[in-house]
Design a protein that fits this description.
There is one protein chain. With 329 residues, this protein is α/β, with parallel strands linked by helices. The chain has 9 helices and 17 strands. The termini are far apart. Strands 5-2-1-6-7-9-10 form a 7-stranded mixed beta sheet. Strands 12, 13, 14, 15, 16 and 17 form a 6-stranded antiparallel beta sheet that branches. A two-stranded antiparallel sheet has the order 3-4.
Length: 329
């Protein structure tokens, strides 16, 4: 059935946009540059940020203000005043991307075209808050973007458009985030007018293959070098840029930003029989090489407490680290 309603111009839709972080801001940029009319932007209230803990606007708010778009920052969308303020703009569709607030049924039913969500996974895999990081942690080879018609469930709505991409073997969450943000913006632009004209066939999500991407916690970022190399490499990649993988070295909590899996032939050439996991086996020109539960891993970028992130060669300057041991606490 066509989504077009009387008076609706599918080439120039009145779009309300709800989002908060940079992932959402990329999609908002694409909307602003498009033929569609962004009539209002919803984003979370300003939060304390930085060392001074001063209130700072979200990435989405900054983009909206720069473009002269009205901004609404309700604490909740459950109260009637916030709903009335949103309804007053008369949007054809509400686009949601990493907003962070629950949309009650009254809001889901408000726009004629409903509410479309840009989700960073191939649904139903990785519903929830941290799909990018969980995909890397799980060792997924592929992920992607779904444009989803929102319903009252947690990322359970029908999928209107899906675009997939491969996850690089060394790709960090930061790098994958940027690629998915760009893919999400592109998929949104591809889907808006087509959905308005009724050209997209909604696909109900299968009941098989559902998984949930729980929020990240800092405790997950602690490295235990008795784990296998591939697990450590995934953890380091998944927690870059937050909360950043870490381990204790010489009594100091060291952050590990980048790593590399050591090739099997190099492992075979090294006698590891008497070396405990976590031990720094050697200092390479570009890496700190560490014993793992089943081999070796190269740590490429690290950070001492109170210092900036450094390449391994700089991190080791002035310190004799070979033979020292990383511990989890």
């Amino acid at each position: 059935m066509s989504t077009v309603q009387a008076g609706m111009d599918c080439k120039r839709l009145k779009v309300a946009f709800a989002g908060t972080p940079e992932f959402a801001a990329v999609a908002l940029d694409a909307l602003i540059a498009s033929e569609h009319d962004v009539v209002v932007v919803l984003t979370q209230p300003d939060r304390p940020a930085g060392r001074g803990r001063k209130l700072a606007p979200s990435a989405v708010k900054q983009r909206a203000l720069a473009a002269g778009i009205p901004v609404q920052q309700p604490q909740s969308l459950r109260n009637e005043a916030a709903q009335a303020e949103l309804a007053a703009v008369g949007a054809d569709v509400l686009v949601v991307a990493a907003y962070g607030l629950i949309l009650p049924q009254a809001v889901l039913d408000m726009p004629p075209m409903g509410c479309l969500n840009i989700h960073g996974s191939l649904l139903p895999r990785w519903r929830g808050a941290a799909p990018i990081h969980r995909a890397i942690l799980a060792g997924d080879a592929r992920t992607g973007i779904c444009i989803m018609q929102m319903d009252a469930g947690l990322d359970t709505g029908d999928v209107l458009l899906e675009r997939a991409l491969d996850i690089g073997e060394d790709e960090t969450a930061a790098q994958l985030h940027d690629r998915l943000a760009a893919l999400g913006a592109s998929a949104l632009m591809e889907s808006l007018s087509a959905h308005c004209r009724g050209e997209l066939q909604p696909r109900r999500q299968p009941e098989e293959g559902v998984s949930y991407a729980e929020k990240l916690s800092k405790s997950e970022a602690r490295l235990d070098f008795s784990e296998q190399t591939v697990e450590l490499h995934r953890r380091i990649r998944a927690f870059n840029p937050w909360p950043v993988a870490e381990a204790v070295l010489r009594g100091e909590r060291v952050r590990v930003w980048l790593s590399r899996v050591v090739a099997a032939d190099e492992i075979a050439a090294t006698d590891l029989s008497s070396i405990a996991p976590g031990t720094i086996v050697s200092i390479r020109p570009d890496a700190v090489r560490v014993r793992t539960g089943n081999g070796l891993i190269d740590l490429l970028q690290l950070q001492w407490p109170g210092k900036k992130m450094q390449d391994a060669s700089v991190f080791c300057q002035g310190r004799e680290l070979q033979g020292e041991v990383f511990t989890s606490s």
